[in-house]
Amino acid sequence: MLAPAAVTTDKRYTIPDTMQAWVLGDPGQLILKRKPVPVPAKAEVLIRIDAVAICATDLDNIYYGPPALIEGGLPFNKNWTPGHEYMGTVVALGPGVDEFAIGQRVACEIHAGCGQCKRCREGMYTSCHNYGLNYGQVDKGHRANGFTTDGGFCEYQVNHINTLVGLADEMPDEVGALVVTAGTAMYALTELGGLVAGESVAVIGPGPIGLLTTAVAKALGASPVILTGLTDDRLKIGRELGADHVVNVSNVDAVEAVRQLNGGKGVDYAVECSAAPNAVNMAVHMVNRGGKVCLAAFMHEQVPVDIAHVVRNNIYLYGIRGEGKSATHRAEALMRQKRFDAGKVHTHTFALEDLPTAIGYAKNHTDNAIKVVVKARGVARRSVAVE
Ligand SMILES: [Zn+2]
Ligand SMILES: [Zn+2]
Predict the structure, then answer these.
(1) What is the rounded CA–CA span in Å between residue 286 and residue 249?
(2) Which residues surround ligand 1, an ion (CB under 5 A)?
(3) With left for phi above 0 and alpha for psi between -120 and 50, is residue 90 left, alpha or beta?
(4) Other residues' Cβ atoms within 10 Å of the Cβ of residue 36
(5) Which terminus, N or C, of the chain has the lesser number of Cβ atoms within 10 Å?
(6) How many CA atoms lie within 13 A of 52 on its CB side?
């Protein structure tokens, strides 16, 4: 590693000059190559990546481009490394860093805001006004690893210390990689008001975010927590994570089912995690008058919503991006206290070299895959560990 004098290393962790890293070529094309190990600057550390989870948004980035934004445009053929849900071990400290120690295990938030715009100053660093302005002459200090800067499908990455969350020693790597996912769930509930104890919550869509929103809502005392979806296997996991009711909406009216489960009135809060085109309109009809709806999924198209109903009934709509307002710290605290087992959404682990296979599992839900994790160390190639 090119280590300037101000970078602190430790002989327990030998850092090579180069590393294995996947880069995105054409849409859907991943190429394994060697890249220099990055060097931490002021307020940054070097992370040895121990586990990285694949997210539906990685698939958007890899196959379509947005929301990845590299050098102001599409991410293809720019030597860019995707992957954004990772955890690892601190192995080098940039100049002036004493907040974290070498050897410490950490989860890594995605968004490091610029720290100087209006939104960053409000703690809304996932809505940084300098999103994507982090290269060359437009370097405003913003980073979103795996979206606007190199991400986690490699062996090492640099992270700003503000993005790090210390992990409990006994938390497995694969679960540590889910802290950011649980942090997004926590952010959704934070924006809806935070004090959800005793409030009724409906969650639409039993993907990783929906399942963990169910778990976090229950851990925070919401009641009842109702999860809707189309897949019985996933709804069963939702029940294990704390849903009071699950509704398979394949053959029933989802809105009517949710309203009936809360005395016919509808719920106080709904969190949309499915990205189904009709789900936003369903969510606004699931909540009661004055209820709040949080939109956590990235829609792929414009969708019709009964805005007259929203206005007449004083319904609030919140869009959220990622894991803002330090929500990952609160999520990790619940996980550390074993208030729910996030590991239930982790289904498969692959070696880093097998990333394309792992992405295939995540994309096609092969073998009922939910959260698929890749690891650079400790997993043999072509072996699939089913938990
Ligand atoms: Zn993600
Ligand atoms: Zn900012």
Answers:
(1) 13
(2) 55, 57
(3) beta
(4) 13
(5) C
(6) 32
pTM of the model: 0.95
Q: Indicate the DSSP class of residue 65.
A: -
* CB-based contact 228:294 (threshold 8 Å): no
- Characterize the bridge pairing of strands 201-204 and 225-229: parallel
Ligand nearest to the CA of 146: 1
The dihedral sign for the CA sequence 141, 147, 150, 153:
positive
What is the predicted pLDDT for the residue at 380?
80
In whole angstroms, give the CA distance from residue 327 to residue 257: 31
Q: Ligand 1 centroid vs 275 CA: distance in angstroms?
A: 14
What CATH number should be reported for the domain whose range is 18-110+145-166+341-386?
3.90.180.10
DSSP H helices, 96-202, are: 118-121, 173-176, 179-191
Strands (E), the chain: 18-24, 30-36, 44-53, 85-93, 105-108, 111-112, 143-144, 156-160, 164-166, 201-204, 225-229, 245-248, 267-272, 287-295, 316-319, 346-351, 371-375, 385-386
- Residues 11 and 332: their CA atoms lie apart, in Å, by 30
Closest CA to 368 of 237, 242, 239: 237
For the chain, which residues make up each domain, given as ranges? 18-110+145-166+341-386, 184-319
> pLDDT under 70 in the chain at which residues?
1-2, 382-387
In angstroms, the CA 316 to CA 313 distance is 9
CA dist 177 and 358 (Å) reads 15
Cα–ligand 2 centroid distance for 83 (angstroms): 22
From residue 153, alpha-carbon distances to 55, 157, 178, 257 in Å are 12, 9, 15, 41
Tell me, which fold does domain 184-319 have in CATH? Rossmann fold (3.40.50)
Q: What is the per-residue pLDDT for 387?
A: 45
